Amino acid sequence: MGKTKTEPRALTILLSFGLCLLVIAREAPVHAQSTGPAQQKQPSGAGTATDSSPVAAAQQNLYNASGQNGGQPTQDSFRGSIVTGKATDTVLDLSLDDAIQRGLRQNLGLILQTSAVKNSNGQRLEELQALLPTVNATASIEVQQINLAAFGLKIPGLSPIVGPFQVVDFRAYLTQNLVNVSALKNYIAAKHNFEGAKLTAEDARDLVVLTVGNAYLLCIADAARIEAVNAELATSKVSLDQATAAHDAGTSPRLDVLRAQVDYQNEQQSLISSKNNLEKDKLALARTIGLPLDQAFRLTDLVPYKALDNVDPQAAFVQALKSRKDLAAYAEQVKSASASKTAAWAYQLPVASFAGDYGDIGTTPGHSHGTFSATGQVSVPVLQIAQTKGQEQVADAQYEQAKAKLSDQIQQVNQDVRNSLLDIQSAAKLVDSTRSNVELATQALSDAQERFHSGVADNLPVSQAQSQVEQANDQYISALYQHNIAKLSLARAIGTAQTSYKDYLGGK
């Protein structure tokens, strides 16, 4: 009797101890790489569709170049869009090129920047009016009755009350600045601001390509992760079937079955998490390109690994100096600040102007006569020392700031180019290394499965090998994503993302 009670208890203890070992062996490699299942399935360094560090840095650069006035886009603006149309019941095929073209039409950041161009043009026209003739026209009819006695006029035999009588007047007034240096310089400053806004809007198109491209690449990585997890799930199912068959044949303990079941269920959980990540990143992609969030779509492009070699950092920097629109926008800001500085100094100069009017006046339109007046005027500021000095210092400070920003932005572009090249080189090495790891881990899994199937060993090495395959696949997918986003960032750093992103990313 004692022996029959001891054996189930010993078996229970043995199974509990084995499950503890299984959990430790299964979870330790995962924790070494990430802090949870959701993070494990996301390409490392990727975050979400708009949190990639190259994208965030590019958004900040454009935000600084465009200024911080009302109506200007912010960093978060490029994550949104204006939705057009309604969702359909069909599944939309969406290529990378289609997504980018939609983003160039519907992205909120680009739309706001285009509105900022209109705002700058309006300010330019307002400053231009000070240099153009101003003509106003009036038409009036006036009825009067005058008491001459109130003015001290007493004429014997004449009633002091005159009227009522009416006066009809049709008149046009003309004013024109003949010489106004400050108004001229203010217009030139506004003109340079307008040119800078147009250049910033062109630069924003490159940023849309980078933002949409990053969102699309993340979805590709998610899809690759789902494919890898499905393969891992199938392998886990084979291992579970083998363990079950061995146990049923009496050649394998129940612990091997439990271990295989845990592996299989972990892969099912990973598949659920991976699919959820893809759906969330597809929503983020739809937000950047103006698709209705309930519109179903599938990705049609797969970006392969395409090495990018023999890129000289100095040559790429020289090309960026010619191509980057934000650098040209900063240069326009310097010219605008210089003109504003001259305008502040010119407020102390004389202003020559002309004013005149011509009209027809009389008691009725049929009993009237033309009259006119013409006045030439020179206005000279005599005593406004504090105001003039204050305006000059403010304008000079803004000019120095604009020059400093331009100088710093040139170095920022140089850094962007070199950072992208370093990321490309590092990611290329990671791709080669992780690809090799996938092959080695897959071979190790195959060997472990054969040993277990032959009865040479239990399935603990199989479980460990499956975990290593999973990690290797995840690292390989992350390396591919990092390599592609680094190449796209280089295209943006050089200033040619909109026209040459396909050359950097490669084919389908």
Task: Summarize this structure as a short list of keywords or feature phrases.
elongated, 12 helices, disordered N terminus, two-stranded parallel ribbon, Outer membrane efflux proteins (OEP), 508 residues, alpha+beta, 2 domains, 13% strand
Question: Brief description of this entry?
Answer:
By secondary structure, the protein is an alpha+beta fold. It is 66% helix and 13% strand. The chain has two domains: 26-131 and 181-348 and 384-505, Outer membrane efflux proteins (OEP), CATH 1.20.1600.10; 137-179 and 350-381.
SSE map:
Layout: H1 2-33, H2 37-40, H3 53-66, E1 92-94, H4 96-106, H5 108-129, E2 134-147, E3 161-179, H6 181-248, H7 254-289, E4 297-299, H8 313-323, H9 325-346, E5 351-364, E6 367-379, H10 385-454, H11 460-494, H12 497-505
Parallel strand pairs: 1-4
Antiparallel strand pairs: 2-3, 3-5, 5-6
Helix pairs in contact: 1-7, 1-11, 3-6, 3-9, 4-6, 5-6, 6-7, 6-9, 6-11, 8-10, 9-10, 10-11, 11-12
